[in-house]
Write a structure and sequence with these properties.
About 10% of the residues have low confidence. Among the domains are: about 110 residues, no CATH class; about 160 residues, Tetratricopeptide repeat domain (Serine Threonine Protein Phosphatase 5, Tetratricopeptide repeat), CATH 1.25.40.10. The relative contact order is 0.05. With about 600 residues, the chain is mainly alpha-helical. A two-stranded parallel ribbon has the order 1-2. Helices cover about 70% and strands about 0% of the residues. Keywords: TPR repeat. This is FANCG protein. One of its GO terms (cellular component) is Fanconi anaemia nuclear complex. InterPro entries: FANCG, TPR-like_helical_dom_sf, TPR_rpt.
Length: about 600
């Protein structure tokens, strides 16, 4: 190629030169496993050489205009086949860049169909695919062999165009169109690896269309084609999660974890095409759908799903495995934010503590939470003010510093929640160990921590910026007050217990656990008339309305679930009988 381009451009040698250029560009593309990027400058230079040989100039033209000028103004029959071959290669570069309109325009020019309208889409067909399919591949001359036939290249372009457009429609939410285009791609010319990726995308599309069974069929087909397509397995787990089939979901996650831990299979040594579909399709949505999970992410999902489903023993095992991975330097192996499935590390510790607590390993809970408390202590100021800052953001500069300050404040609220939750879990652990005095101490530390937060703004309500964090803090405060109140009852300190339950109801009016314990505290203080009145009020409250109220708002963190279960009032029937007996006796005394 260097020798030919070093000579003056001449029509007799141009067919050879363009064919050598075609082969050279294919070798360059095929030698790399990375996607094609940028412009094919060699093609532009080849087109300029054609114009030079014809006595024309096009240096000031863009590549699209250059193609139009060459194909419309160069009538030399011998150049038609090499130019068509080069045009197909240009289409490959433009597809890789996502320039679908440019590709359609080029094939409009290249089309040699007798009926010019045949290149246009009809009957709802996709325009770009119709144009590519309508292109008549010129015959190859025996004296100018191609390293990859133009017919193969046409098939690859059809597959890539359908795949790319299917991904675009999927991202735009046009799922029926995306499904049709991806099915077209699945029937095209591609490797097993790409076919598995297409079936994976079909599965994701069907899932978003609300067709989980169809999604599973596509995803299982992806794994049949190429079991190394592990993202398909992670999507299978997600579909089963959506269906509520926890057993199968956990089986899929276990398979995925084991597969990810194995060394990757050696690349196939079988012959492959120089130009391939995988070199042309590289979009952000495909990267997202095919993201390969780190083994630790899957291990965490196994732990989380086991805990959510009440499989305490399995959850403990998985959480402890995950924590051992942390000690091996997990932070350097996988990002712990963004697209990762992993939550923040203190939350993982607290979730593990919750699992251990349910397994009855209370001393381990205390040790694990102490780690969270010690690591977050220096990150929390003595007083943390939550203020309305939107006005400041509008009128102050530079904005970036204020946003950074806002994020910093959110981060400190998270640290405070984690440390307070650590004390909360320790309080319940000591309570289960029968150490009520130590439990009261930990609950009190939790409440003392929460006094650091001062809310400022209209009606002293948290701003929307901090609403989730503040709601979590309020829930921790409620659980800690109820927890401390229960331990005061155990110690016979009924008045102090009553105060805690009253404060609980101020935080969450109508909370059934706090209200039940309040009745019990009044009963133990021999304030039976008040206890009976409160019990009647509690009994009359609509269970349906309570359920609706509980279902509203944001879900609370998983690490608080065990604490929510701990505060459930255990003596409802016994207390109810005692109060009913009291009311019956009181009614008889009144009547007599």
């Amino acid at each position: 190629l260097a020798v030919l381009t070093g000579l003056p451009a001449a029509l007799p040698t141009l067919p050879l030169e363009l064919t050598v250029l075609y082969n050279c560009l294919l070798f360059t593309a095929g030698a790399s496993d990375s996607a094609i990027k940028g412009e094919a400058e060699g093609i532009r230079q080849g087109l300029l050489r054609v114009l030079e040989a014809c006595g024309a100039c096009g240096q000031d033209l863009g590549t699209e205009e250059l193609w139009q000028k060459v194909l419309q103004e160069v009538p030399v029959e011998e150049l038609q086949a090499p130019l068509h071959h080069l045009g197909a290669l240009q289409a490959a570069w433009w597809l890789a860049a996502g320039r679908l309109g440019s590709v359609a325009g080029l094939f409009q020019l290249l089309s040699t169909a007798e009926d010019p309208e045949g290149a246009h889409c009809s009957g709802g067909q996709n325009k770009l695919l119709s144009l590519i399919k309508a292109w008549q591949v010129p015959a190859e001359g025996p004296s100018l062999p191609l390293v990859q036939s133009a017919k193969d290249l046409k098939e690859i372009l059809c597959t890539a165009a359908a795949f790319l457009q299917g991904l675009q429609e999927l991202e735009a939410g046009n799922f029926p169109t995306a499904l049709s285009l991806l099915q077209e791609a699945a029937g095209g010319f591609c490797s097993k690896k790409i076919l598995a990726q297409i079936y994976t995308c079909l599965g994701c599309c069907a899932q978003r269309m609300g067709k989980p069974q169809t999604a599973l069929q596509h995803l299982k087909r992806a794994l049949q084609v190429d079991f190394q397509c592990l993202p398909a397995l992670s999507h299978v787990a997600a579909v089963y999660h959506e269906l509520g089939e926890t057993d199968v979901e956990l089986q899929a996650l276990t398979l995925l974890y084991e597969a990810l831990r194995k060394p990757p299979a050696a690349a196939s040594s079988s012959p492959r095409s120089l130009m391939r579909t995988e070199l042309l399709v590289h979009t952000p949505i495909l990267t997202s759908l095919l993201r390969r999970h780190h083994p630790s992410e899957v291990k965490y999902l196994l732990a989380q799903r086991s805990l959510q489903d009440g499989r305490v023993a399995d959850a403990v095992e998985h959480y402890l495995d995950f924590l051992s991975l942390l000690q091996q330097g997990l932070q350097q192996q996988v990002p712990l934010h963004g697209s990762s499935a992993l939550p923040r590390i203190p939350e993982v510790f607290l979730e593990a503590a919750s699992a251990l607590e349910q397994a009855g390993r209370h001393q381990d809970v205390i040790t694990l939470c102490e780690e969270v408390i010690s690591r977050t202590t220096d990150l929390i100021p003595r007083v943390l003010q939550v203020e309305e800052r939107l006005k400041q953001l509008k009128c102050s500069s530079p904005g970036a510093e204020l946003v950074e300050g806002l994020l910093s404040q959110k981060e400190r609220l998270c640290c405070l929640a984690w440390r307070a939750a650590g004390y909360l879990h320790q309080g319940w652990a000591w309570a289960k160990l029968g150490e009520s005095k130590e439990a009261v101490t930990q609950f009190s530390r939790c409440l003392s921590d929460l006094l650091r937060v001062q809310l400022h703004g209209s009606a002293v309500k948290p701003t929307e910026n901090f609403q989730p964090e503040v709601e979590v803090l309020q829930k921790i405060r409620l659980l800690s007050l109820i927890g401390r109140g229960t331990q005061f009852l155990e110690l016979g300190r009924h008045k102090e217990a009553l105060l805690d339950f009253q404060h609980s109801l101020q935080i969450s009016p109508g909370d059934p656990a706090a209200a039940s314990y309040l009745v019990q505290a009044l009963w133990k203080l021999n304030r039976k008339q008040e206890a009976a009145a409160q019990w009647q009020k509690l009994s009359q409250s609509s269970l349906g309305e309570d359920g609706q109220q509980q279902g509203q708002g944001r879900p609370f963190p998983l690490y608080l679930v065990s604490c929510l279960e701990q505060v459930t009032f255990p003596h409802s029937e016994t207390l109810a009988r005692s109060i009913q007996d009291y009311l019956r006796t009181a009614a008889q005394d009144t009547s007599s």
